[in-house]
Design brief:
This protein is mainly beta and 868 residues long. The chain has a 24-stranded antiparallel β-barrel. The chain starts with 12 loop residues before the first helix and ends in an 8-residue tail after the last strand. Among the domains are: 113 residues, PapC, N-terminal domain (Ubiquitin-like (UB roll)); 90 residues, Sandwich (Immunoglobulin-like), CATH 2.60.40.2610. 3% of the residues lie in helices and 56% in strands.
């Protein structure tokens, strides 16, 4: 129930009367300790015989009937509201028993051996709560919940944010459409471009959920126009991938069919059409889950950053000038990523990121695996004049559905935890013209880190050779957290491949192009962090060096140093230095970024920064301000290469989409504007809503506020309000994590009451969860309820609205303080197995007038399911 903090608050007299009256009642001994008998002589009632107090006679007592309740097990919600029946106890006419059906009992999270001990009552329909010592269930209409308490010894493993598989929710059927749109326009006068240009690009995911199945189709497209380009407007659109997947929770695995990637921990990633079955790390408890790559770089101006893999756009956004770090890529992504930074003056930076992680170690006795069967799928190429310094050609992927003539293949890999320190892992790929085998061993060195070594061999028949090419590759990987020194080597590794060794991807390229290019020779990489807590300083370092047998080498280096300090009475200042050098296809791009930030109040920061790159330099001062939790902006001004500059960047986390807008001006050079819109639409039989969404095609939660609009719902720190139909969708939820959503009571309207202010869900990957808040919306007023014969419902009778939410309790002479009053609304009064109906008038009286409400249609309210 909402607390109104004194604003126009009127106490619910019926509830207060019941509480006062219960507190004054006298307790008498009885056969059961929780029986309560009331001394009605202390009550000032005109009709002492017309009283209905059964619902107060026992702790947690509910009259026989059907109730919409949220099931909570040891305080954790199982999901949305469910219809729970209370039936009359045959052994005690003053007692009722809760009926927990078998499908709900299966979600309680009991260990198998204790679940098998459960007994069933009421013709096998309901759980016998005496089956296990200490197990109880108490109904609470005030919170619209059924609170089930179970001793922890009976329960499966749980943690603060993880539930056992018995509580995983596949969600409800529905259709999704998620999108990410970017638009840029401007007029440039530079060495890179001239004239006015614009481009619009986008990518997204459409999908359908049916039961545990997720059907997905990913798309991407672009439209480019340059007034100075004789080619005019260039457009392209393609469906990246069309596939379906589902979880198989019993074996903690994921089944995928269609166009997908073989994301391997042993071999390099490649794309194929077929099916795969693999262990899903996301189904494991959080501390046992895998690694997700991150992409770091520096933007020289407002820029668009695109992260892709073999032409498939994984992530695209626009960033403000300065260092950026993309950390929300899926942990399912592995292999080589292509990063493209397109500045608003047309300049382009490109580099690659290798996301290979240490091959996974497995717990003792456990076996993790991946199996795949299908046909490789590849890409056709086109070239265009480069945009970066050096005027080289880029390769871009234009046909994402080109299937090579290569035959079917089968692949598999495993990792077996031999004991507490050693893991054995390996895999194989088999086909008519390409075969590969890998075997490796991993060792947990405990306080010294983790080490892995593997050897891979390949044999490939390619068109330009009259014999098979065979080769080997060796890899050594290491990871270590130096807790005593606040340091982490996130990844360090070395790999060497002989000239004729081919990954599947290299084989496919050679098979298509009749030549062998870009075959790997050596790769070594390191990523590390170091914290100097006494100095409030941290260092981040990333370096990779990659050589090829027939192509120029690639080098990527970046280093960041940051420090917080106080000086001259100013507190919480921060300074940072970022330096980088990227070498991509024999073209060098290097630079540095230095900044100093001074906080002003709680929501604003003034920063001074300087950027140097190749032959460019800029110096600017900026002002950043958080308007509220959903809106922020940044204004900058300064000089770049001797020309005056001005920039603006605005971010809005809207209920229906996330919008980033930016504009920049450089005297004598360019003026540009950019816009990013990210969001989605989710449509189900329970409702439809537009919403924010970053993880396209991912897990989401549909919130139902009983049709009440503008209810503020908070999740992961951001607030979303329900739409006109009382629906809202919370996106970007972590799969297999326990996610929570709550009503922000401080922002809730005075005419709205919510009984269950928090809902929780543990959703499988890609699910559309559904949760409902018990919301009562409408006016509050005193009313008098009378029967057709002139009598009134008994003292203590309860009033419910059409959603079965309690709106009042009858006092003496039928008086009641009602909430949720709406014109032409319907309510019902229930007591002792009887019910009558109330019809509210079309025009409600003013605050000073009380409602006179006839209660008609008196009838028996005992549920059919509870009658013997």
């Amino acid at each position: 129930m909402k607390i109104n903090n004194g604003k126009n608050y009127k106490p619910k007299l019926s509830v207060l009367a019941a509480l006062i009256f219960a507190s004054l009642s006298a307790y008498h001994s009885s056969a059961r300790a929780d029986d309560i008998e009331f001394n009605t002589d202390v009550l000032d009632l005109k009709d002492r015989d017309n009283i209905s107090l059964d619902q107060f006679s026992k702790a947690g007592y509910l009259m026989p009937g059907d109730y919409s309740l949220t099931i909570k097990v040891n305080g954790q919600s199982l999901g949305g509201e469910k219809t729970i029946t209370y039936y009359q106890d045959d052994k005690d006419p003053k007692n009722s028993l809760v009926c927990i059906p078998q499908d709900i009992a299966a979600q309680l999270g009991l260990k198998d051996k204790y679940f098998k001990k459960l007994k069933w009552a009421h013709d096998g329909q309901c759980l016998d709560m005496s089956s296990l010592d200490g197990m109880t269930a108490t109904g609470n209409l005030g919170t619209s919940s059924l609170d089930v308490m179970i001793p922890q010894a009976y329960m499966e493993y749980t943690s603060d944010n993880w539930d056992p598989p018995s509580r995983w929710d596949n969600g409800i059927p529905g259709i999704i459409f998620d999108y990410n749109l970017n638009a840029m326009t401007g007029k440039n006068h530079s060495d890179y471009d001239s004239g006015r240009s614009y481009d619009v690009s986008g990518n997204g995911t459409t999908g359908l959920n049916i039961g545990p199945w997720r059907f997905r189709a990913e798309w991407q497209g672009s439209l480019d126009h340059d007034s100075g380009d004789s080619e005019g407007t260039d457009t392209n659109f393609d469906w990246n991938q069309i596939y379906a997947y589902r979880p198989i929770s019993s074996i903690k695995s994921k089944l995928t069919v269609g166009e997908t990637y073989y994301n391997s921990d042993v071999f390099d990633s490649f794309r194929f059409v077929g099916g795969s079955l693999e262990s899903d790390d996301s189904m494991l408890p959080p501390n046992l889950r895998g690694y997700a790559p991150e992409v770091v770089g520096v933007a020289k101006s407002n820029a668009k950053v695109t992260v892709s893999q073999k032409g498939r756009v994984l992530y695209e956004t626009q960033v403000a000038p300065g260092p950026f770090r993309i950390q929300d890529l899926s942990d399912a992504v592995s292999g080589r990523l292509d990063v493209r930074i397109e500045e608003q003056n047309g300049e382009v930076q490109q580099f690659t990121v290798n996301t290979s992680d240490i091959p996974y170690l497995s717990r003792p006795g456990s076996l993790r695996y991946k199996l795949a069967l299908g046909k490789p799928e590849g890409y056709e190429y086109k070239s265009y004049d480069g945009d970066t310094e050096g005027d080289y050609d880029h390769d871009t992927y234009t046909d994402l559905h080109h299937t090579y003539g290569a035959p079917m293949f089968a692949a598999g890999e495993f990792s077996w935890g031999v004991n507490s320190g050693w893991s054995l892992y390996g895999g194989a790929i088999g086909g008519e013209d390409y075969n590969a085998l890998s075997i490796g061993v991993g060792r947990d060195l405990f306080q010294y880190g983790a080490l892995a070594f593997d050897i891979s061999a390949s044999s490939a028949k390619v068109p330009y050779e009259d014999h098979k090419l065979t080769g080997t590759s060796y890899r050594l990987s290491y990871s270590k957290d130096f807790d005593d020194y606040d340091s982490q080597i996130t990844f360090a590794g070395y790999r060497f491949s002989t000239r004729d060794f081919m990954t599947m991807d290299e084989y496919l390229d050679a098979h298509e192009e009749n030549s062998s290019l870009d075959n790997d020779k050596q790769l070594y990489t390191i990523t590390m962090n170091k914290q100097f807590r006494d100095l409030a300083m941290s260092i981040y370092l990333n370096y990779s060096h990659e050589t090829y047998w027939d192509s120029p080498k690639n080098n990527n280096f970046s280093m960041s140093i940051s420090k917080n300090f106080d000086i001259w009475g100013l507190r919480n200042l921060s300074a940072s230095l970022t330096a980088y050098k990227n070498q991509y296809r024999a073209v060098d791009d290097y630079g540095s970024y230095l900044s100093l930030s001074v906080p002003i109040g709680d929501n604003s920061t003034v920063s001074v920064y300087s950027t140097v790159s190749n032959s460019h330099n800029s110096n600017e001062v900026s002002y950043f301000h958080n308007i509220d939790s959903n809106n922020s902006y940044q204004l900058s001004t300064g000089a770049s290469d001797g020309d005056a500059t001005a920039r603006a960047y605005f971010t809005h986390l809207g209920d229906r989409a996330e919008v980033d807008a930016n504009a920049s001006y450089q005297s004598g050079d360019s003026n540009n504007f950019g816009l990013t819109v990210r969001g989605g639409m989710t449509a189900t039989t329970k409702g439809v809503a537009l919403h924010r969404m970053n993880d396209m095609g991912g897990t989401r939660l549909l919130i139902d506020a009983d049709g009440v609009a503008d209810v503020p719902v908070e999740s992961t720190g951001a607030v979303t309000r329900t739409n006109l139909f009382g629906k809202a969708v919370l996106g970007d939820l972590n799969s297999y994590y326990r996610s929570a959503a709550s009503v922000d009571l401080d922002k809730l309207g005075d005419s709205v009451d919510v009984s269950n202010t928090v809902v929780q869900a543990t959703l499988t990957e890609g699910a559309i969860g559904y949760r409902q808040f018990s919301v009562v919306s409408g006016e509050k007023a005193m009313a008098t309820v009378s029967m057709a014969d002139g009598t009134t419902p008994p003292f203590g009778a309860t009033v419910f609205n059409e959603q079965s939410h309690q709106t009042g309790i009858i006092n003496d002479n039928g008086s009641v303080y009602l909430s949720g009053i709406k014109p032409n609304g319907k309510m019902a009064v229930k007591w002792n197995g009887e019910v009558c109906d109330i019809s509210l008038p079309a025009t409600l009286p003013g605050q000073a007038s009380a409602l006179l409400l006839p209660c008609t249609g008196l009838r028996d309210d005992t549920p059919v399911s509870t009658k013997q």
